[in-house]
Amino acid sequence: MENNKLMRIGEFAKAANVTIRTVRYYLECDLLPPEKRNKNNQRVFNDEDLHWITNLHYLREAGMSIVELQHYTALVREGASSLPQRIELMREQRKQVLTAIADKQEQLKVIDHKLERYLAGDSAVI
């Protein structure tokens, strides 16, 4: 995508790999930068907005709530003075993601064990 390309909501949602509904919801929650409009008064988004929503979406997928995303967004908008709080927020989120990964690894071990037993012909394993 070329720099500073302005996208309308459908194109923006597609580029961000989210739904238009998600974009609108993020707008309602004040998670996206201030509005930009084209000459036809249509809401438009640029590459910076795309980068921002992509990061928000990753954080959301990593388990952050909308309230936490709103807090994070407010901190980013404060600028450099909020860097220590953002670092702490990301450290906490990182811990949560690592815990989720460890849980998934344990689940995978159980599944692998069952597969191994079933493939060996042990139909009694529940």
TrEMBL record:
InterPro entries the UniProt entry points to: DNA-bd_dom_put_sf, MerR-type_HTH_dom, MerR_fam
Domain (HTH merR-type) ranges: 6-75
Nucleotidyltransferase recorded as keyword: no
Key words of the record: DNA-binding
Pfam families: MerR_1
Protein name: MerR family transcriptional regulator
Protein species of origin: Levilactobacillus tongjiangensis
